[in-house]
């Protein structure tokens, strides 16, 4: 019964918006690459081949090879796990932390609100990418630190969003009714308010995911992220960028296209998610 | 007459910027007897809603006490009171039925949540039985119990709001303008339902409204508020036949009545005084009152008796 209702809601959300279906298909493809990429690719992504340097896309190498003769297609597919993994972990962490802090600030107000608000203002006061660079430079180049840096620069958006959404609901009739019905403050927040702010938060997260992917890849692009020879879209674009003038376009176009595809997919998903999660659109 | 609810010297003040203090409720004494239906009337901004939230223990009073069946509920803070067994004794039906139902809860969960929390009923069969009984009492068809609020009409939502409040069997039901957001035709149905429920369940009502006709229909006693203070309280018939306070007289004169068509009626001039830092020695109605004199600007009139259970706060009443 539950599965049937979910199925109806899913088909309703997808049926209403074909682009969501496209986005979901791309996401599925990306997730497949992330999960099984290393078993699917034709070449070892780290294997260099001195005889096949900078080969144009062709029958042997679908997307061509780079300056060390590595197969670009294999590297792109394998990199999906790292790129998506970093972005999803960072967004998930800032979602949970931002929602918690924002909900506390918005519901209780007062000192908690002022302290949390000022901390978020402080983060926002920096150019965010520069702040991320600084954090990674200070903590060291590692995947974990890229995730932490991306989490921190995303945090204020979730926190402010959650604060505003909780604040407008704090005095609504159903929240007062919940308090009347014996719910203490944590129960009011968790059971009565948060389920109602999740849909807009999820939309925000989906739109934000694209930005997080760009951010993690951007850090690697400027040499502050993961290190070569790790297959990663940002590094690949960065390595390929030195061939823009000499005309080996495939070295940067394909990894760049992978980034564009991932960002595009998450942005489109945002709209579909809203339809799916909004109770007023449920059947 | 034993009082079920007794409020003594209730004040609620809010900071109003630049050191000002807004006196939303300013020294209200109120009693509701067991089984009694009391009407609370007054214009917008007179502190009705604040008083309701105080009495329902949704906000803490600045000072004053609220006794429920003789026990002081203000001895603990509002945050602690939430989990006390007395919490179930006072319930509120809110003004806007649409806004007072959680959009992500089905009707069942809206009604069941207070039953779980306040009465500790977790057994699914018993819970369902209680929810169904509450729905039957308010005339809500059982098939609507699985719906979301946005799938219900305004009248159905109002019934859900009432069912949620009465499900925990409160001794006092506070109705905060329960019909003001409804169509006129639905209003009559809901009012009849409320009157019927009171006789069946023996609850006390505190009925808040700015519609005197509605209050007259349901209530045996009426309390009139003006700018945070009670200006008159009297049994319904006494209030309608012999209002003492000029504000009550103006309210009654404002009720449309075809029989009085063309007559000159008492109309209030000017705007209400500011509730921010009011002068404690000036009558709140001074400046808008047709009977104003110098005395009104030097001494705040206190409630004085005028016959049985009839009190009014005016020097000239």
In words, what does this structure look like?
The complex is a heterodimer of chains A (283) and B (317). Chain A is mainly α. Chain A has one domain (23-49, 60-281): MetI-like (MetI-like fold), CATH 1.10.3720. Chain A has 10 helices and no strands. Chain A is elongated and about 75 Å long. By secondary structure, chain B is an alpha/beta fold. In chain B, the strands form 2 sheets. Chain B has an 8-stranded mixed β-sheet with strand order 6-7-8-3-9-10-12-11, sandwiched between helices. In chain B, strands 2-1-4-5 form a 4-stranded antiparallel β-sheet, with helices on one face. In chain B, strand 7, helix 6 and strand 8 (204-209) form a beta-alpha-beta unit. The chains are: A mainly alpha (283), B alpha/beta (317).
Provide a compact summary of the structure.
The complex is a heterodimer of chains A (283) and B (317). Chain A has 283 residues and is mostly helical. Chain A has helices at 2-16, 18-40, 72-108, 110-125, 128-139, 143-169, 173-180, 185-221, 233-241, 250-277.
Largest interface: A-B, 21 and 30 residues
CATH class of chain A: Mainly Alpha
Oligomerization status of the protein chains:
heterodimer
**Would you count the extended β strands of chain B for me?**
12
Distance between the termini of chain A: 13 Å
Q: What gross morphology of chain B would you assign?
A: globular
Helical content of chain A, roughly? Answer: over 70%
Beta-strand portion of chain B reads 15-25%
CATH architecture annotation name of chain A: Orthogonal Bundle
| Radius of gyration of chain A, whole Å | 22 Å
Count of domain modules of chain A: 1
Shape of chain A: elongated
CATH fold field value of chain A: MetI-like fold
Number of helices of chain A: 10
- Tally of separate helices of chain B: 9
Q: Largest sheet of chain A at a glance?
A: none
Strand order of the largest sheet of chain B: 6-7-8-3-9-10-12-11
Main sheet attributes: strand count, strand direction, barrel closure of chain B: 8 strands, mixed
**Sheet/helix structural class of chain B:** alpha/beta
* Topology pattern of chain A, helix = H, strand = E: HHHHHHHHHH
Please provide the count of β strands of chain A.
0
């Amino acid at each position: 019964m539950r599965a049937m209702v979910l199925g109806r809601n899913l088909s309703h959300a997808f049926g209403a918006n074909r682009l969501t279906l496209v986005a979901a298909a791309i996401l599925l493809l990306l997730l497949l690459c992330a999960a099984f990429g290393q078993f699917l690719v034709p070449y070892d992504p780290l294997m260099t081949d001195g005889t096949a340097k900078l080969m144009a896309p062709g029958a042997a190498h679908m997307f061509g090879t780079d300056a060390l003769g590595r197969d670009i297609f294999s590297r792109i597919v394998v990199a999906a796990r790292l790129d998506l993994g970093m972005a999803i972990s960072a967004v998930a962490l800032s979602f949970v932390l931002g929602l918690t802090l924002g909900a506390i600030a918005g519901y209780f107000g007062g000192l908690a609100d002022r302290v949390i608000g000022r901390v978020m203002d402080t983060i926002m006061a920096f150019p965010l990418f520069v702040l991320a660079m600084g954090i990674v430079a200070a903590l060291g180049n590692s995947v974990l630190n890229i995730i932490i840096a991306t989490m921190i620069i995303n945090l204020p958006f979730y926190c402010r969003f959650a604060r505003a959404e909780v604040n407008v609901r704090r005095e609504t009739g159903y929240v007062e009714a919940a308090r009347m019905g014996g719910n203490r403050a944590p129960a009011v927040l968790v059971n009565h308010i948060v389920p109602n702010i999740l849909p807009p938060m999820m939309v925000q997260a989906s739109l934000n995911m694209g930005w997080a992917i760009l951010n993690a890849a951007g850090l690697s692009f400027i040499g502050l992220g993961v290190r070569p020879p790790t297959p990663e879209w940002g590094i690949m674009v960065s390595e390929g960028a030195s061939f823009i003038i000499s005309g080996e376009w495939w070295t940067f176009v394909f990894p760049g296209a992978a980034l564009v595809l991932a960002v595009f997919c998450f942005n489109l998903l945002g709209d579909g998610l809203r339809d799916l999660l909004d109770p007023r659109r449920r059947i | 007459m034993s009082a079920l609810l007794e409020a003594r010297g209730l004040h609620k003040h809010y900071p109003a910027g630049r050191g000002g203090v807004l006196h939303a409720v300013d020294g209200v004494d109120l009693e509701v007897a067991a089984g009694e239906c009391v009407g609370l009337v007054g214009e917008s901004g007179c502190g009705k809603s604040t008083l309701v939230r105080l009495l329902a223990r949704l906000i803490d009073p600045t000072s004053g006490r609220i006794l429920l069946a003789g026990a002081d509920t203000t001895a603990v803070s509002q945050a602690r009171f939430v989990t006390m067994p007395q919490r179930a004794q006072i319930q509120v039906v809110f003004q806007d039925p649409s806004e007072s139902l959680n959009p992500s809860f089905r009707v069942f969960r809206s009604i069941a949540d207070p039953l779980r929390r306040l009465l500790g009923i977790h057994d699914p069969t018993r819970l369902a039985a209680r929810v169904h009984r509450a729905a039957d009492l308010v005339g809500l068809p059982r098939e609507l119990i699985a719906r979301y609020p946005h799938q219900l009409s305004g009248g159905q939502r109002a019934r859900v709001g009432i069912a949620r409040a009465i499900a925990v069997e409160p001794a006092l039901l506070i109705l905060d303008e329960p019909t003001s957001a409804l169509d006129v035709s639905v209003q009559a149905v809901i009012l009849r339902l409320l009157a019927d429920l009171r006789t069946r369940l023996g609850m006390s009502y505190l009925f808040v409204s700015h519609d005197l006709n509605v209050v007259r229909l349901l209530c045996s006693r009426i309390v009139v508020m003006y700018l945070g203070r009670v200006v008159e309280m009297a049994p319904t018939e006494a209030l309608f036949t012999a209002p003492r306070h000029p504000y009550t007289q103006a309210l009654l004169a404002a009720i449309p009545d075809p029989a009085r068509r063309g007559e000159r009626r008492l109309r209030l001039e000017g705007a209400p005084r500011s509730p921010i830092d009011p002068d404690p020695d000036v009558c709140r109605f001074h400046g808008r009152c047709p009977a104003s004199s110098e005395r009104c600007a030097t001494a705040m009139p206190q409630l004085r008796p005028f016959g049985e259970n009839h009190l009014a706060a005016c020097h000239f009443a």
